[in-house]
Specification:
It contains 10 helices and 2 strands; from the N terminus they run ααααααααβααβ. By secondary structure, the chain is an all-alpha fold. It folds into 2 domains: about 50 residues, Homeodomain-like (Arc Repressor Mutant, subunit A), CATH 1.10.10; about 160 residues, Tetracycline Repressor, domain 2, CATH 1.10.357. The chain is elongated. This is TetR family transcriptional regulator. InterPro entries: Homeodomain-like_sf (IPR009057), HTH-type_TetR-like_transc_reg (IPR050109), HTH_TetR (IPR001647), Tet_transcr_reg_TetR-rel_C_sf (IPR036271).
Length: about 210
């Protein structure tokens, strides 16, 4: 890797290497030495960019979350094609989760990795409570992303939430987590479409014009 890369570019390169490794051997099996070797840098470079493996894993899960967030915003035409009001909000939410779902369906290994990082943090947290921060930051970051997408949809359609957006976003994230995990088990994409319809309907039930 070129020595001319900025620290942020180095971090992104190392995170990408860690993701590729974790997809193959699981989170628990990845070491910072493995990441250094896969990225073609010294171990010292890894520890210069990340204090330890936990810090690297925290940024790894954020990177995976941002991939999904970016997939929702990738098609700008979706965000420009809706009018105002509750029905428009519902349809916009449904279109947004469809964009997210297309990303999920095309990358099952990465979706499995998000669950593995959570269980890794919970299991390791029994002996090292600080490791719980990986899972907590993962979900706090995801909650924030979902809330921002919902707020964007609210502003675009001129509706008002009847519950705090944080409450709605947390429910939406819990729902999506369950849908994706079930799909990883049974691969039933047709049923997922029905579930996403339900999600959009439920979220729209907590808005007013």
């Amino acid at each position: 890797m070129s020595s001319r890369l900025s620290v942020e570019e180095r971090r992104a390169h190392l995170i990408d290497a860690a993701i590729r490794l974790a997809e193959k051997k699981g989170v628990a099996g990845v070491t910072t030495r493995d990441v250094a070797q896969a990225a073609g840098v010294s171990l010292g470079v890894v520890h210069y960019c990340f204090e330890n493996k936990d810090a690297l894993m925290t940024e790894l899960v954020k990177a995976l979350s941002m991939e999904l967030r970016n997939s929702v915003e990738a098609d700008e035409s979706v965000w420009r094609s809706f009018g105002s009001g509750k029905d428009s909000f519902r349809n916009l939410v449904r279109a947004a989760v469809e964009l997210l779902w297309r990303n999920v369906e095309s990358s099952p290994e990465r979706q499995l990795l998000t669950y593995e990082t959570t269980t890794y943090a919970l299991r390791e947290g029994e002996q090292t409570p600080a490791k719980l921060a990986i899972a907590r930051e993962q979900y706090e970051f995801n909650d924030s992303n979902v809330a921002e997408v919902l707020e964007q949809a609210r502003q675009g359609t001129g509706i008002t939430f009847t519950l705090p957006v944080q409450t709605i976003s947390r429910f939406a994230l819990n729902f999506i987590d369950g849908v994706v995990l079930r799909w990883l088990v049974d691969g039933d994409s047709a049923t997922v479409q029905d579930q996403l319809d339900v999600l959009a309907d439920v979220i729209a039930s907590y808005v007013s014009e």
